[in-house]
């Protein structure tokens, strides 16, 4: 039997083969370490019309489907009213109206649209969306600045863009979305 030959069904590696295998193992370990060091963020995807948006999972409290909106007078047109979630009164924000994309139809009616309850340190609101998508894990490096082609009204509410499965997704700037609710 020679070096690099067979013994009991196993291949015996020569010194050179062992060195190549060792280099490959070190390279794979380095790639794995780099992959683990990469900062990733969980993003909940949702649709407004034909466009996809996302919010950071850390800012999502819950998704709510069954609610009754109580109208509130003298509020901005993008506030549909308030809902009661287990004793807590939460404003309902029409993201389309806030971003200048028109009003969302069917809010608070039979077969109503889902809302995403988002929070920061001071306030919560329920964002009306057309559909809830998946949760995507997005690398911080994959985030790009908002596109220059966005309308100014929309660009104010977008913190960045990224791609998921070839689809462009805009990351919602919740600080900007929640600012008028806090000051109102």
Description:
With 184 residues, this protein is an alpha+beta fold. It has two domains: 6-37; 40-183, OB fold (Dihydrolipoamide Acetyltransferase, E2P), CATH 2.40.50. The protein contains four helices and twelve strands; from the N terminus they run E-E-H-E-E-E-E-E-H-E-E-E-H-E-E-H. A five-stranded mixed sheet has the order 10-3-4-12-11, with no helix packed on it. Strands 5-8-9-7-6 form a five-stranded mixed sheet. It has a two-stranded antiparallel ribbon with strand order 1-2. Strand 1 (6-7) and strand 2 (10-11) form a beta hairpin. The longest helix is centred in the N-terminal third of the chain and has 23 residues, at 15-37. The protein is elongated, with a radius of gyration of 25 Å. The model has no long low-confidence stretch (mean pLDDT 78).
Fourth CATH level, the homologous superfamily of the largest domain: CheA-289, Domain 4
Rg computed from alpha carbons, rounded to a whole number of angstroms: 25 Å
CATH C-level name of the largest domain: Mainly Beta
- CATH fold node name of the largest domain: OB fold (Dihydrolipoamide Acetyltransferase, E2P)
Write a short abstract of this structure.
This protein has 184 residues and is an alpha+beta fold.
Notable traits:
five-stranded mixed beta sheet; 184 residues; 22% helix; OB fold (Dihydrolipoamide Acetyltransferase, E2P); single chain; alpha+beta
Write the SSE topology.
Blueprint: E1 6-7, E2 10-11, H1 15-37, E3 40-48, E4 51-56, E5 60-64, E6 79-85, E7 88-94, H2 95-98, E8 115-119, E9 124-128, E10 131-139, H3 152-155, E11 158-164, E12 167-172, H4 174-183
Parallel strand pairs: 4-12, 7-9
Antiparallel strand pairs: 1-2, 3-4, 3-10, 5-8, 6-7, 8-9, 11-12
């Amino acid at each position: 039997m020679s070096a690099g030959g067979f013994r009991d069904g196993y291949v015996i590696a020569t010194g050179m083969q062992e060195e190549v295998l060792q280099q490959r193992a070190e390279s794979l370990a380095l790639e794995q370490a780099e992959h683990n060091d990469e900062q990733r963020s969980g993003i909940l995807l949702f649709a407004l019309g034909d466009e996809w948006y996302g919010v950071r999972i850390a800012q999502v409290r819950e998704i709510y489907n069954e609610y009754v909106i109580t109208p509130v007078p003298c509020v901005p047109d993008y506030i549909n009213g308030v809902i009661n979630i287990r004793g807590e009164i939460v404003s309902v924000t029409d993201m389309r109206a806030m971003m200048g994309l028109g009003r969302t139809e069917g809010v608070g009616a039979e077969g109503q649209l889902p809302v995403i309850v988002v929070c920061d340190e001071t306030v919560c609101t329920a964002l009306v969306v057309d559909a809830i998508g998946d949760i995507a894990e997005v690398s911080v490096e994959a985030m790009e600045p908002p596109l220059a082609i966005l309308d100014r009204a929309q660009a104010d509410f977008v913190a960045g863009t990224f791609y998921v499965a070839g689809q462009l997704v805009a990351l919602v700037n919740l600080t900007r979305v929640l600012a008028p609710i806090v000051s109102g």
